[in-house]
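As agreed, record passed on underneath.
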Amino acid sequence: LYRSQLQIERSAEIDKITRITQEAMRRQREAVDLQRGFKADVEEVDREIMTLIDNGNLSHAAILQVRQRQRQLHTTQIRLAHRTKQTIDRITKEVDTLFDIIQ
């Protein structure tokens, strides 16, 4: 009886870890989606800027400033993508390790 109680408790713990893991994976997917959204926003900004420049609606000085800000935006977006991927990879590795240990 005692042994079956331990198995039930272990099973409950594994179920709990599984639920937490599934939630973590859902959040990972959300983070990836959010990062993709940022990338799409940056691309849209690029298109709008090109339209302004092509239509001659910006002075030369404004174009230079816009280009500089554009580069900063791209750099920030790339950094975010890299950090997001690193974090997700780390979380995935930890979750995999946890499952290896408990099984």
